[in-house]
């Protein structure tokens, strides 16, 4: 078997998996920018919104940062994978960028 992966045939956001007589390109974990294998512990560098904790790239919970990021009145922060979103609190709805009581 020739190790086709030795020539790095895959794209930057993929890793190479050598198989018998061939190879396949697999997508890196969402937390990675470039990787050497499967999972968040094989990242070359962490993607935006992720931080290296030990060997893994883990999501930053922007909603728990000391500085509040959703600053509009009656607005709550919702953490998402690699990011966050600001949503109107329960009982309020978005009307032209302002959270008004429903």
From TrEMBL:
What Gene3D superfamilies does UniProt report for this protein, alphabetically? Laminin (2.10.25.10)
**What range(s) does the EGF-like domain occupy?**
59-98
Q: Which GO terms label this protein's molecular function in UniProt?
A: calcium ion binding
Q: Name one Pfam family in it.
A: EGF_CA
Organism superkingdom = Eukaryota
Q: Which UniProt keywords apply?
A: Disulfide bond, EGF-like domain, Repeat, Signal
What is stated as this protein's family in its record? Answer: Belongs to the CRELD family.
Entry protein name? CRE2A protein
Q: Which organism is it from?
A: Formicarius rufipectus
Task: Tell me the gene name.
Answer: Creld2a
